[in-house]
Automatic annotation (TrEMBL):
Topological category with respect to the lipid bilayer: Single-pass membrane protein
Domain Late embryogenesis abundant protein LEA-2 subgroup per the UniProt entry, residue ranges: 101-203
Origin species: Capsicum baccatum
Entry's Gene Ontology cellular component terms: plasma membrane; plasmodesma
UniProt keyword annotation of Acetylation present: no
GO biological process: defense response to other organism
Entry protein name: Late embryogenesis abundant protein LEA-2 subgroup domain-containing protein
Name of one Pfam family that matches: LEA_2
Taxonomic lineage of the native organism: Eukaryota, Viridiplantae, Streptophyta, Embryophyta, Tracheophyta
Keyword match Transmembrane helix: yes
């Protein structure tokens, strides 16, 4: 029997629509216990750190408002240079330099323990002498004195340019010398003492040579403090 023409009109019963089936994923919105615990821990840690940072900031601000700390000031008040001869034969520097230095603590509530002080004398970027000074305690709004003395001889290798500068200074009778102070200090605030701090103080000054009974005037110089 021949098949009916499928392109013609169809007058039979209606064909029901195709139904779609949906499969719900089992893992959907469920939470892995390990992952949830890790996220909670991270959130708690971040909140604790943030709270601590705010608390430390508030404490630091209160301490600053109460203490109003000011920088300690270092000065070279006087310098006496009676010998500063560089031998070209053996590159040896013969020197005799004495300094008077002052340390001014302007703070009302901060004392300073100077646990160690090393003074180094430099010329043209090279160290030629050093001295360890006695430790001491400096009270509030106090001025203390240091008296480093450098005397002896030391090997000093200078380049042509540095030698030329030395000769110019020798002719003028005024030398540019640098003294550095390397310290280990502790601050005392009430009954609290801080850990050791290592500031470095740099003093650049010009000192005239005293010779043949001639005295020279030295200009007081303020040093640079580097925390």
């Amino acid at each position: 029997m021949p098949e009916p023409n499928l392109n013609g009109a169809y007058y039979g019963p209606s064909i029901p629509p195709t139904t779609k089936t949906y499969h719900r994923s089992r893992g959907g919105s469920s939470c892995n216990p390990c992952s949830c615990l890790f996220n909670c821990l991270c959130t708690c840690i971040c909140q604790v750190i943030f709270t601590l940072l705010i608390a430390l900031g508030v404490i630091a601000l209160v301490l600053w408002l109460v203490l109003r700390p000011n920088k300690v000031k270092f000065y070279v008040t006087d310098a006496t240079l009676t010998q500063f001869d560089l031998s070209t034969a053996n590159n040896t520097l013969y020197y005799d330099l004495a300094l008077n230095m002052t340390i001014r603590n302007p703070n009302k509530r901060v004392g300073i323990y100077y646990d160690s002080i090393e003074a180094r004398a430099m010329y043209k970027g090279q160290r030629f002498a050093g001295q360890n000074l006695e430790p001491f305690y400096q009270g509030h709004k106090n001025t203390s004195s240091l008296h480093p003395v450098f005397k002896g001889q030391s090997l000093l290798l200078l380049g042509d340019r540095e030698k030329s500068n030395y000769n110019n200074e020798k002719n003028s009778g005024v030398y540019e010398i640098e003294v550095k102070l390397y310290m280990r200090i502790r601050l005392k605030i009430g009954w609290i003492k801080t850990h050791k701090i290592k500031p470095k103080i740099e003093c650049d000054f010009k000192v005239p040579l005293e010779a043949n009974g001639r005295t020279a005037n030295f200009e007081e110089t303020r040093c640079h403090l580097d925390w």
